[in-house]
């Protein structure tokens, strides 16, 4: 019974993620990378254990992260409530091992730590239930 | 090039500062035993999320924390066969003398070149900042050491070959 509920949820979540991805593409075309990142981070992490949803969400966030050129302006526009979830996605990006992704993630990680402090890192390490 | 190295080391330093929050925790299963939980991984509630920080395809650093211990595994950049052999020999030399280092692990974790195991006892005896400085300094020095070793091997090889082949001129 629980599996059916999960499956329904998963389909709904994947549809939502696709909507998000279309919105983000349009925002990126308008040269608004910060807005795109905010949209990508909203509603994450998806409230499910399904790997496909997490991967789908990660692909969307990855697209937004790679489009950012100016890291300093990012933090003047991004609200603090998104810092924790951004940190979790940065660590996911760092674990991929792909050179441009890692470069970008390292750059943002340094600035985010200066801004949000070590607590942000510790929350991403300690949160074993809401992983991305 | 140097810039990514600086960012990589900063990231590792920040993550270690956050992750090195260790306290004494006697074993839950066996009384009167005190084991580093990160090695045994018996109880999931005592472990934090492991974090993998990659600089590129060749270099990475795995940081696993638990309530009373922290394990750091490093994979060092190895450009060619010679560096491969030199790194293996050099790090094996260090690992065999792990007693002297105290925080070094005798065998690296599968898939990595060298591992450190830091327990709460180390944090009590030594300063946390100094431990982190040691690890980051180690990472910086390893690259320099390996290039120096490679240079000296190449120089010696060239000298020996020149001397040997002189007799055929």
UniProtKB/TrEMBL annotation, chain A:
Keyword Cytoplasm appears in the UniProt entry: yes
Alphabetized SUPFAM superfamilies for the sequence: Arp2/3 complex 16 kDa subunit ARPC5
A Gene Ontology biological process term: regulation of actin filament polymerization
Keywords assigned: Cell projection, Cytoplasm, Cytoskeleton
CC per GO annotation: Arp2/3 protein complex; cell projection
Location relative to the cell: Cell projection; Cytoplasm, Cytoskeleton
UniProt xrefs under Pfam families: P16-Arc (PF04699)
Family from the record: Belongs to the ARPC5 family.
Assembly and binders: Component of the Arp2/3 complex composed of ARP2, ARP3, ARPC1/p41-ARC, ARPC2/p34-ARC, ARPC3/p21-ARC, ARPC4/p20-ARC and ARPC5/p16-ARC.
Role this protein plays: Functions as a component of the Arp2/3 complex which is involved in regulation of actin polymerization and together with an activating nucleation-promoting factor (NPF) mediates the formation of branched actin networks. Arp2/3 complex plays a critical role in the control of cell morphogenesis via the modulation of cell polarity development. Functions as component of the Arp2/3 complex which is involved in regulation of actin polymerization and together with an activating nucleation-promoting factor (NPF) mediates the formation of branched actin networks. Arp2/3 complex plays a critical role in the control of cell morphogenesis via the modulation of cell polarity development.
Protein name per UniProt: Actin-related protein 2/3 complex subunit 5
From TrEMBL, chain B:
Signal peptide: none
GO molecular function ontology, one term from the record: actin filament binding
GO biological process: actin filament polymerization; Arp2/3 complex-mediated actin nucleation
Main subcellular location: cytoplasm
Keywords carried by this UniProt record: Actin-binding, Cytoplasm, Cytoskeleton
Subcellular location: Cytoplasm, Cytoskeleton
Protein name, UniProt field: Actin-related protein 2/3 complex subunit 4
UniProt key word Metal-binding: no
Function, in words: Functions as actin-binding component of the Arp2/3 complex which is involved in regulation of actin polymerization and together with an activating nucleation-promoting factor (NPF) mediates the formation of branched actin networks. Seems to contact the mother actin filament.
Gene Ontology CC entries for this record: Arp2/3 protein complex
